């Protein structure tokens, strides 16, 4: 394989990505034990698995909590055999290069370190595509904005605002390229992107990065490829299956420091992304909505179960990305009310002061339940604060403002 | 004071309620140290405070975290002096009796035990009024439903549904009798009340129970007095001051096992009730709403800060009233999805099965990435589950449903 622009590891992982479905734990454990090049040889039957590698392989599975029979590898090799004939890693790599893309692997510099938190479930590789390829930022700068395909105008509006607000703050918005909330998240991010933003948005797809799925989002996905990145763990040409959709969600969650669910029904794929995020110790935000909207029921479920934090705008999402990197957000307008800081006696006195007529000190003492000296002292303080004023007849009233 | 239908403690507390504003800690500590009858004597200057009582009095203040000067009582007595001339406890008691009411005091059987959690801030007494007086139920059966005076149609609708749902489950709905959310909570409770419900709703007022405040709610408050209870810690004739409103909120919170805030602005009195409830270790529920609604901003603030649990209907509120008494609510519809419980291999296989055409076992093995025996076993399981079917040409496809 010398002479190729691709490293041996890239070629091996490209082949393994076609041989194995995402999250094939047996295959992933084999790679962890033997490295990608030897693992491919073993998986395709080109070589047999030595006892040392086999022991390491079983240990990896055991350490990640998988109780397996000792013949699990033999079974798996038989299972994989049906796909060996279709392997053509160099062709796949050329395909992705033709699209202006490349193959990221854990051994490469640009590999998003955040994915290591997936441990054994770390993807075999990531096929990425973008006209102006930029590295995927570290998780502190990445926020996932996800939600249902069927969405309300409310959900779409909030999504657009969130995505735009996050991009304006320098974050990269990750989503899944689906209809509804996902699509609006990408669109909002693209719309808000400025020249100097390295990567406003990226789509993690459940199909190959050479495909536009769903078809109605073709234009959008083309624009994401132009201005951002399309990313997938499955090789070019792969079709999006339900299984791949579910597995794809773990990558969205792992790339991001915060996963925000804008709208989701009581049962929704977007909740799976949220649960992945929570499982990884990432923050989860949920946008509240009407209790009458079935499209918010999943968000309210997350809030009620305590799996998510209530977020209502981009500033609140940014706060969740971490204390170190979250900018100093302007505090929400929280002006002290007129009467903040008054002692109880002065509050009583203020309540007792008439607005139009005037009152005497003695009468104020009775109404407010204060002593005469207490009233005099309080009136002095309230006058200083501009809350009380003397009247022409020598009495007191509230200061008109 | 013999011959009166009122006990000495009732008469003394009635007088003290007029002498002291709510939450006058010095007065409350004096009552805790000396009992109401002697405390009244001391407070009015009819007798002096002996050294033993004075020591106990200072200890009560100290124990409740109040750092005071030793002359605090002398100062207070001077302060109270302005109201001594106006004391007429028997007249006040007669007034409340004319309205079909009575005076509850901590010494009486019907005193709501839950108020003891307020410790030194426990009310001096409660003036109550109701045409069909029923005891205030223990806190497990009482839920506060509160919110802003300015409310949206959304907030009003949710409030009405919540109150009705709670009363239908046998709870008593407590609120503050104000415009907006409070009023709708009372109305929803009254509307849902059945003959056999002892107490659908009660209003804790910031003014005397002989007054209708706000005036626009007079009809409503009359109906609450007919079908439920009006309750106040301030004596008949008292006007509602801002100070009394704020203090009143602690009673609403203390009577209830759960305080639900339906709508509240970022700064709102309803939040003070929620904070009182949280401070007492009671549950707080917040109803979510549109992130664009300023009337929901306070609820979202509570959710975000973790002070409240997200509630969207009466069943979810009922769950918060405690594990012992919350009925077994019908679980929200949560049918297993078609594909729940399938192993990963079967999910892959299901994804690989065509819907209209048919596929061979070998092709399925390649597409799904499974071995041929694995496909055969999986097809058997899927056929049993009604998810796969044989085609006339000997192949397989998804079962049409």
From TrEMBL, chains A, B:
Domain Smf/DprA SLOG: 103-319
Positions in coiled-coil regions: none
NCBIfam families tied to this protein: dprA
Family from the record: Belongs to the DprA/Smf family.
Protein name (record): DNA-processing protein DprA
Source organism per UniProt: Arthrobacter parietis
Taxonomic path: Bacteria, Bacillati, Actinomycetota, Actinomycetes, Micrococcales
Gene name in the database record: dprA
